[in-house]
Design a protein that fits this description.
The chain is of the alpha/beta class. It has two domains: about 150 residues, Rossmann fold; about 70 residues, 2-Layer Sandwich (Alpha-Beta Plaits), CATH 3.30.70. Helices cover about 30% and strands about 25% of the residues. A six-stranded mixed sheet has the order 2-1-3-6-13-14. It has a four-stranded mixed sheet with strand order 7-4-5-12, with helices on one face. It has a four-stranded antiparallel sheet with strand order 9-10-8-11. A hairpin with a 4-residue loop joins strand 13 and strand 14. The longest helix is centred in the first third of the chain and has 15 residues. The mean pLDDT is about 95. The structure holds ribulose-5-phosphate.
Amino acid sequence: MKTAGGAAGAKRRAGERAAREVEDGFVVGLGTGSTTAYAIEAIGELVADGLEIQGIPTSYQSRQLALEVGIPLTSLDAVENVDLAIDGADQVVDDPDSPAHGALIKGGGAAHTREKLVDAAAGRFVVVADPSKLADRLERSVPLEVLPAAHSVVADRVRDLGGEPSLREAERKDGPIVTDNGNLVLDCEFGPIDDPDELASTLSSVPGVVEHGLFVDLADATYVGTDDGVEAREY
Ligand code: 5RP
């Protein structure tokens, strides 16, 4: 078992806590990112101990890791329901008095389109996070997965809406990142987002936007790993 302190330790504790929700016979959505990776590893250990489940990966990354740790895989169109989805987040509204309590920004790994598909299909969607992800309101940039031919017209529309778009650049490839679906990503700064639900509806209506990274009213719970334990938020 890995030992990790700081943010890595918090992520591990959150991921392992979420993995404890997996029961025999479950179909489990496997999110993307470093926090969910701890959950996938923990689920792999349960499978090695005899738990019978099927996983639905949300990205190339989560598929590869699930295969490495021995989780049998399936797909959304091959199952009747998804019992549980476990996924990370880039920001989580953590103000019980806010109407947006539990709303998320996702897409830091450019996997939010498939993540939303699987997370929204799940009977229960559990977010795993470390404390750096918590905020009183959403204010990080919102990733938009866009059709390649649409990136400039979508960027113009985002500017009309008061946002500042930038095409996400690859780190070890010249040019933009290309998603697992063959699309591009615009990271859009809107400043503090007072009404994520309204912005989500507006962004969904822009032609060329495949999916945006606002997840509103989707999460059922968040597990926040801390220095020495896990705090649970139920919505
Ligand atoms: C990928 C995501 C990730 O879940 C999100 O970026 C959080 O990642 P990490 O757990 O590595 O901080 O939305 O598209």
